[in-house]
Automatic annotation (TrEMBL):
Cofactor(s) essential for the protein: Fe(2+)
Cellular component GO terms held in the UniProt record: nucleoplasm
Top-level taxon of origin: Eukaryota
PROSITE patterns to which the protein is assigned, alphabetical: ARID, JMJC, JMJN, ZF_PHD_1, ZF_PHD_2
Record organism: Anolis carolinensis
Domain called JmjC: residue spans: 323-489
Family: Belongs to the JARID1 histone demethylase family.
Database matches in Gene3D superfamilies: ARID DNA-binding domain, Cupin, Zinc/RING finger domain, C3HC4 (zinc finger)
Main location, first listed in the record: nucleus
Occurrences of domain ARID (ranges): 81-171
Protein name: [histone H3]-trimethyl-L-lysine(4) demethylase
Length: 1321
């Protein structure tokens, strides 16, 4: 029951070690096994996975291979289960001999475990004591039944009926017999109740038997004596039966796959290994289920061929597969390699020196066992499903044996060497519960499993597979091998080979042995010689005196075995003449026969004296090695002051290679120490050389093999701890001190709030000399970046004018990547705040600059004031500041013009307006200036329309100013040059050589304008007079040979021709435009002299008046004023001439009669020159007077002037002028002209009113100033102008003046009347 409970909850043992050797390690199997032995022998078994590319071809002859497998009944494998089965067999046999068949009862629907019930009752003291103490319920509980259901009474009845008679029989209670008819009661009565034994014919009453029989048995019946004899026969040794069928690999595989697939009801490859494992252990512990499998075990490879390729094999190998022929992991090679001591055994021992093959199926198993002679074993799974292994370490072998004997003593009583028969298995959980260490593994195809000496192992197959195994023995096994032979002697177990024979064979070849093998063999041989010497002395003491040399090795092993202990004799044996074929070893001399010992003869292979030289040969071979080993040990264990150099260690290694010393632990340790020392020396040299000098600069960081400071410290200690001396140790100690100083200084710097970047860089430069991983470097680099960034910030922020937005963004971007630090975060916060404010104000400045409508100067000044508080260079802020400055300068200039009281020059206004367009500020005076410039331009346009002829090539100024180009032939004129400003305010001596000079002189000063024009006029008159004389001389010249060129074409005169009234030049009528019909006497001017339309004076005076209202001075205005003054003066003089009747003067001014007559003749118009001329002049004067009197007529004003200059002469005004005398009229015009000039000069250029107010003020000019204005409405309103000093216009209806009165009489307003204004006649 307890065992079944464990099995139901089977827990897999821990996994054994798994090794995956590199190609270098895999090259030497024995060296690798020796390397892993300290680990693997602790678990007894281990698994080795070869390198992935190691895949030997499967070389077994599949067609030739056939075998008869063993039959395995799973429930007979497990030791405790087999004990139960044996007990049930005894009970069944007992009742069968009693004539009854055994039927196992059921209790609580479970089969009653009779073995457990019998054991529990025996443990409680037997049937009688259990009944007396009423322990049946307790026993039922122990068996797992639920108490309280009268189970105890049922169990008692079954025990009493089935087991009690058997136990009584076993105790001999029914063996009391005598010689009476009824051998029990001695009575011959009740013959019908007498039973006749079918074995011995004795008679017994049925009621005398114990227990009594109620009925006569129907079948054969045995009496108690016959029954005892039958039941006490010894059991046959348990073993596996051979199957009746012979299989090939193919047929066995088909059977195996079909079994597993049917059993688990799924494809074989889909069954989990864990499920198969649990099911296996369930089946081996279950009596009720009888599952039988077959196992093709211990198939000789010698007969059918190994799975590994061998030389001379039938399988043809590819070139790349030939390497597997000599591989140490080829199981055909491993036992006989030089490192394996089995190579010295001459016999081919199947399974030990020759591999065995194993063909498994699901559940087929190999039971707990250890290898023969406690040797190593190695198993390779060629292909197929996994093999599950369980193993126990060698030190637990005896413990495992004791547990199995304790749990299944009945088996070991009949088979003491049961575990050597490979027929018994026991659940690993059961062994583990008793303290036996068990390990497991699943061996997959292509993997090795190695078992170590005396390591018990067992297992089973997960399915169809093919494995191969062989034994091998290493040098370290030799002591165990001798111990195993002694153990076999105690168990009377056969040896597979003679251990002593193997030792002597190795000693005979001492000179060729490996020195380690020689040393080990020498030690083993010393033991052998000592034991042999003692045994021979004991034999001699027993009386065996006869001896002879005997070559026992020539005898087959079964003919030289000790008849007592079965050991194989080699060194010596005892025989007797009574039985020449029998031998005993020297341990069992007394067991040979009963003959006296003096008749015995001892056969020996060597005398003791012969053995010593053999041992000495081994010793000599080993001595050179021992001396070397002693030197190595001395070097490795030397104290500090006696340490040898690294060169000495290398010399020891070279000596071992030269003398071919074995690659054992000592040599490997020496190599390891030397390699460590060389590595330390190399690393120390690298550290001293500073190999990391360029790593950081080239972008590298910590080297993969770089030491930390602590590791350097430990490394220095390691150098001191090395068994050899290195020259770099002292230097490295100094390096460590420098590194520690570096750490202290770096710690000091890092503790500062803002360390210096130069100091940090200096530390980093020092670190380049250390090939050590310095943890501070990362923080130093971080702090260096922070310090550089902070210094960059401070440096840039020192000059506020150079701190741009891009600088701030760059600093912030670079600062974002820095590690957090209070100083950095503080600077970042300031920068971010400054950038935010700067961007805000820069954007605001850009917005203010581009704002439409433009912002006022005050708001921009406030913004500039805010921007000036920001310690940064803001391009838009600078632009805004510049704009404000320009605006202020502009306004200052404008206000200067206004405050100066002088009428501004047009060019100045144009320049101001032009500049204002580039100033993004709302300029208060700009609209008025623009309006003024527009009005001036309109005035100039109106004046041009008034003066200039159609398609005229002259400018307005050229027409208005005195001519500067008199005498220049053709129409080509010089290009107008730019005006040059006066230097340092000093007046220059102006030479009026051209119009440009004249224009410049007029622009420079108003005071000198009239003088300049007068000068130009005088020059014009002088030049014109000269031109007239020259032209007239050209016409009246008497020189015959002189070539005369006239006209525009500059050709000779030819009729018809016409003469210019002004320049007196003559022109071909075909070259110039001449009116075809003269309506009245008129003068003709040539294209050079006809420069304007010559408008009437009344049409010009409003132009001058409107210009004075505009309050802007321009050269054209000065020229116009000068022109009007000249005109008025000319009129005045003309009036004087007319009134005086001095016509002669006029005639002189108009030209010579002769000249005119000649002119008329040339033209073809023979009129009286003087008469017509006088009439024309008079008509012209009269016409001019009439035009002067009507100069302010509304209808005669320029329509364009009215449209461009508003309200200069209102549309609805009717002008009134008194009938003045001609002389007074001229005088009045002159006075009004001067009044206009004076009034204009007395006014300021601008007022404080805005543009809209100024426009309204212009509208107010049309308002009647009468006190009680009637505000008349209608399409036409009559106006009248005051002839007093105010010159204001009134509604005629508001001042009581009729249109006739306004036309004929002067009107003086009430205001002027009150001032006693007298109008001068």
């Amino acid at each position: 029951g307890a065992g079944a409970g464990l099995l139901l909850a089977f827990l897999p043992p821990p996994e054994c070690p798994v090794f995956e050797p590199s190609w270098e390690e895999f090259a030497d199997p024995f060296a690798f096994i020796h390397k892993i032995r300290p680990i693997a022998e602790q678990t007894g078994i281990c698994k080795v996975r070869p390198p992935p590319d190691w895949q030997p071809p499967f070389a077994c002859d599949v067609d030739k291979l056939h075998f008869t497998p063993r039959i395995q009944r799973l429930n007979e494998l497990e030791a405790q289960t087999r004990v139960k089965l044996n007990f049930l067999d005894q009970i069944a046999k007992f009742w069968e001999l009693q004539g009854c068949s055994l039927k196992i009862p059921h209790v609580e629907r479970k089969i009653l475990d009779l073995f457990q019930l019998n054991r529990l009752v025996a443990e409680e003291g037997g049937f009688d004591l259990v009944c007396k103490d009423r322990k049946w319920t307790k026993i039922a509980t122990k068996m797992g039944f639920t108490p309280g259901k009268a189970v105890g009474s049922h169990i008692r009845s079954h025990y009493e009926r089935i087991l009690y008679p058997y136990n009584l029989f076993q105790t001999g209670a029914s063996l009391l017999v005598d010689l009476y008819v009824c051998l029990l009661c001695g009575s011959g009565n009740d013959e019908d109740r007498l039973l006749l034994c079918d074995g011995c014919d004795d008679s017994y009453h049925t009621f005398c038997l114990i227990p009594p029989l109620h009925d006569v048995p129907k079948g054969d019946w045995r009496c108690p004596q016959c029954l005892a004899q039958e039941c006490n026969k010894p059991q046959e040794a348990f073993g596996f039966e051979q199957a009746a069928r012979d299989y090939t690999l193919r047929t066995f595989g088909e059977m195996a796959d079909a079994f597993k697939s049917d059993y688990f009801n799924m494809p074989v490859h889909m069954v989990p290994t864990e499920l198969v494992e649990k099911e296996f252990w369930r089946l081996v512990s279950t009596i009720e289920e009888d599952v039988t499998v077959e196992y093709g075990a211990d198939i000789a490879s010698k007969e059918f061929g190994s799975g590994f390729p061998v030389r001379g094999g039938k399988i043809k190998l590819k070139p790349e597969e030939e390497e597997y022929l000599d591989s140490g992991w080829n199981l055909n090679n491993m036992p006989v390699m030089e490192e394996s001591v089995l190579a010295h055994i001459t016999a081919d021992i199947c399974g030990m020196k020759l591999p065995w093959l194993y063909v498994g199926m699901c559940f087929s198993s190999f039971c707990w066992h250890i290898e023969d002679h406690w040797s190593y074993s190695i198993n390779y799974l060629h292909w197929g499903e996994p093999k599950t292994w369980y193993g126990a370490p060698g030190y637990a072998a005896e413990q495992l044996e004791e547990v199995m004997k304790k749990l299944a003593p009945e088996l070991f009583e009949s088979q003491p060497d049961l575990l050597h028969q490979l027929v018994t298995i026991m659940n690993p959980n059961t062994l583990m519960s008793h303290g036996v260490p068990i390990y497991r593994t699943n061996q997959c195809a292509g993997e090795f499993v190695i078992t170590f000496p005396r390591a018990y192992h067992s297992g089973f197959n997960q399915g169809f597979n093919f494995a191969e195994a062989v034994n091998f023995c290493t040098v370290d096994w030799l002591p165990l091998g001798r111990q195993c032979v002694e153990h076999y002697r105690l168990l009377n177990r056969y040896c597979v080979f003679s251990h002593d024979e193997m030792i002597c064979r190795m000693a005979a070849k001492a000179e060729t042995l490996d020195v380690v093998v020689a040393s080990t063999v020498e030690k083993d041989m010393a033991i052998m010689i000592e034991d042999e010497k003692v045994l021979r002395e004991a034999v001699f003491k027993l009386g065996v005196t006869d001896s002879e040399r005997m070559n026992l090795e020539v005898l087959p092993d079964d003919e030289r075995q000790c008849m007592k202990c079965k050991t194989t004799c080699y060194m010596s044996a005892i025989s007797c003449t009574c039985n020449p074929g029998s031998l005993v070893c020297l341990y069992h001399v007394e067991d040979l026969c009963t003959c006296p010992t003096y008749q015995y003869k001892m056969g020996y292979r060597y005398t003791v004296d012969e053995l010593y030289p053999m041992m000495n040969a081994l010793k000599l071979r080993a001595e050179s090695y021992n001396e070397w080993a002693s030197n190595v040990n001395e070097a490795l264990e030397a104290k500090v002051n006696n340490k040898k150099s690294l060169v000495s260690f290398k010399a020891l290694i070279e000596e071992s290679e030269m003398r071919k010393f074995p690659d054992n632990d000592l040599l490997r340790h020496l190599r390891l120490v030397t390699q460590d020392a060389e590595k330390c020396s190399s690393v120390a040299q690298q550290l001293l050389n500073g190999k990391r000098q360029t790593r950081y600069r080239s972008g590298g960081g910590k080297s993969q093999n770089q030491l930390t400071v602590n590791e350097l410290r430990l490394f220095v200690r390691q150098l001191h701890a090395l068994p050899c001396v290195l020259s770099q140790t002292a230097l490295l100690k100094d390096l460590l001190n420098r590194v520690e100083d570096f750490q202290k200084y770096s710690q000091k710097l890092l503790s500062e709030e803002i360390p210096s970047a130069s100091e940090l860089q200096g530390l980093l430069d020092i670190s380049f000399d250390f090939d050590v991983d310095l943890p501070q470097l990362g923080e130093l680099r971080i702090r260096l970046e922070q310090a550089r960034w902070l210094e960059d910030v401070n440096q840039i922020c020192l000059d506020q004018n150079s701190l741009t937005l891009d600088d701030m963004r760059r600093l912030i971007d670079s600062g974002v990547g820095l590690a957090p630090h209070p100083a950095v975060e503080k600077a970042m916060a300031k920068l971010q705040e400054l950038l935010t404010v700067s961007e805000h104000w820069d954007d605001k400045a850009r917005t203010l600059i581009k704002a439409r409508p433009r912002q006022t100067l005050s708001s921009l000044e406030a913004a500039v004031k805010e921007i000036e508080e920001i310690p940064a260079y803001l391009p838009n802020g600078i632009a805004l500041k510049d704009a404000v400055k320009k605006a202020k300068d502009w306004l200052q200039e404008v206000e200067g013009l206004q405050a100066g009281g002088r009428v501004p020059v047009l060019d100045t206004l144009v320049e101001l307006v032009s500049r204002s367009r580039s100033i993004p500020v709302h300029l208060e005076y700009l609209p008025r200036l623009e309006s003024l410039v527009a009005e001036v331009q309109a005035w100039k346009d109106c004046a041009s329309n008034t003066f200039l002829t159609e398609n005229s090539s002259y400018s307005l100024l050229e027409v208005l100013c005195p001519r500067c180009d008199i005498g220049i032939s053709g129409f080509k004129r010089k290009t107008k040059k730019l005006k040059e400003p006066a230097l340092n305010g000093k007046k220059r001596n102006t030479k009026l050589e051209s119009l440009i000079d004249l224009e410049r002189a007029l622009s420079e000063s108003k005071e000198t304008a009239m003088a300049t024009l007068t000068e130009a006029r005088l020059k014009e008159m002088e030049t014109l007079h000269g031109l007239r004389v020259a032209n007239e001389e050209k016409i009246f010249s008497n020189e015959q040979n002189t070539e005369i060129k006239v006209c525009l074409c500059q050709k000779e005169p030819a009729a018809p021709m016409i003469q210019c009234e002004l320049c007196r030049g003559v022109f071909h009528t075909s070259c110039v435009s001449v009116p075809s019909i003269w309506q009245e006497p008129r003068v003709w001017l040539c294209p050079h002299c006809h420069r304007s339309e010559k408008p009437p004076l009344e049409k010009i005076l409003p132009l001058l008046a409107s210009l004075q209202r505009i309050r802007v001075r321009l050269p054209e205005g000065d020229a116009l004023r000068y022109l009007i003054e000249r005109t008025v003066n000319w009129q005045h003089r003309m009036q004087q001439m007319l009134s005086s009747g001095n016509v002669k003067l006029i005639q002189e001014n108009t030209g010579s009669g002769i000249l005119y007559s000649r002119w008329q003749t040339m033209v073809g118009q023979l009129h009286e020159t003087s008469k017509n001329d006088c009439r024309g002049k008079r008509d012209g004067i009269c016409c001019m007077e009439r035009k002067l009197k009507r100069r302010f007529e509304r209808g005669d004003l320029c329509s364009e002037m009215r449209s461009r200059v508003r309200k200069i002469t209102p549309n609805k005004k009717k002008l009134k002028l008194a009938q003045l005398r001609e002389l007074n009229t001229s005088k009045l015009e002159r006075e009004k002209l001067f009044d206009i000039q004076r009034s204009g000069e007395s006014q300021l250029l601008l007022s404080d009113m805005s543009l809209s107010e100024q426009e309204e003020s212009e509208d107010e000019d049309a308002i009647c100033p009468a006190v009680n204005c009637l505000q008349p409405e209608g399409d036409e309103v009559d106006w009248v102008q005051c002839d007093g000093c105010c010159n204001q216009w009134f509604h005629q209806v508001c001042v009581g003046v009729s249109p006739e009165m306004a036309e004929k009489e002067d009107y003086i307003c009430a205001s002027c009347t009150g001032k006693d204004f007298s109008y001068q006649n």
